[in-house]
Structure formats: C-alpha cells, structure tokens
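Appendix B, Record 12. Input sequence as logged:
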Amino acid sequence: MWTVWLACGAVLFPGLFYTLRKILKSSVPHWSDGDVVSVSERLVSACHASLATAAGVTVVTSCSDVMTDSHWLVNGFVVFGAPYMAYDIYAMYLTHFYTQRLRHDAGAHRSHSLQTVRSFLLKDWMLVLHHLTLLTVFLPIVLFFRRGQGDFFIGCLLTTEFSTPFISLGRILIQLDLDNSVLHKINGVIVLLSFFTCRILVFPFMYWMYARQFGIPLHRVVFTLPLHCNVGNLVILAPQVYWFILLLKKAKRLYQRQKRGTGDGDRDGKKTT
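Logged structural output:
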C-alpha cells in the first residue's frame, strides 16, 4: 500500500509542476522563465499544503485519545508527501536559477553549474534543511519508531501547512505587481494570523490536549514527556518562530513603505492646490 501512495505522490507533484509550466508559458507568453517556474512552484506548494491540511484536520477530528487512536491517513499521507519534499527542492532551485539568470544576464548564472547549486544552497539553506529533515528524520519516525502511537499529534503537525497557500498567494500577487492592492493587504493579515495560529500556537495546543487527556496541569507536561519529544517539538518550533519574525519584519517594511507613499501623495496634493 505504501508503494501506491509513494507512486501517486511521485507522479502528482512533478506532473502538476510540468503541466502548469506548459499552461502558463502558452497562456502568458510575456512572462519570463523565472516567472513561469516561480508561479508554478507556488501553485504546487499550495496544492500540497491544502491536501496536508485536509488530511491533518481529518486525523485530528477523528482521534479522541491523543495517544492511542490511529488513522490510516497518517502513514499514507506521510509517504504520499515524501516525493513532494524531494521535488520541491528541485523546483526551488529552478526558481533560484532563473531568477539569478534574469538578474545576471551573463556569466556564471547562464547555465547550470556547481556554482549555481552552491548559491542556491547558501540562499535557501534553511528551507532545504527543513525538507531534508522531513525526509530523513520525520518520515522514518512516523513510519517505524513511534509504535503506532500519537496519530493525533502527527495530524496537528500536518495542519501547520494551512498558512502555506496564503503565503504562496502573496508571492504570486507580488509577481503580478499587485503588492499594493487591497487583496494583497488582506492576504498579508491572513498570512500572519494563520501562520501564528497553525505553526506556533499549535504546539501549546498539543501540550494542552495531552494535559487534558491525562488530567495533569499544563505546566507539568514538559516534565512528563520523554526528553526526545520535547527536543523534537523545539526543533520544529524554532524555525517557525524565526520565519514568523521575518514575516512581521516584512509586513512592517511594507506598511512603512505604503505610509511614506501616502504621505508623499498628500504633500504633492497640497502643492498642486
């Protein structure tokens, strides 16, 4: 059965990426290769995130016992999503390559090389590490080492992808030069709220559900769980906090830029009157 899930993931995500590139290239001919690859990558990312969120919500709402209840979707979707992690590293590299080639119309970025790979790894090392960790650490733990327990918590981790479609939409809107639109502003607020809720608050929520299950105070859960569980959660949480801080800084810069633009417009209006 795992082979079927793996094959479906291996066909769906690269196949969807290839199809979207063909469609966008023919329907928006004035877009560069970088634009086409970037938007295609974002759309596939949104698709995977939506499926992961749906699977996570299904698992969480189906498990009344947070430790012993199981759901067939957990192992199935983790295997199904594994090819996406491998594919997405390649898609991110292509986006980086075409973007750099557009910026540097000559020289090292004109063709694929070890230098272009190196520059990609230096720029997006955290995302690459995140994907590789999911493949080499998270996947084996879910499939082989947790002894069929904790499906509820795996479901919670799957729901962390809820914010990804909105992040992808925001980047697509920027690609379409709509970063000053009302839609982009609304989407930015949704990104911050969904990211904070589903990628940060989900961790105290899991601890609270564990405390509720076993009738212990919330502050004692950390001392009740095995050390490796707390360390694992901390390792997953740390980059989420880092990325959330980056989102806040980006939102602040955008707000200040728009505020300055509005101020300049008001001053120009006063001068003309």
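The CA atoms of residues 25 and 31 lie 7 Å apart.
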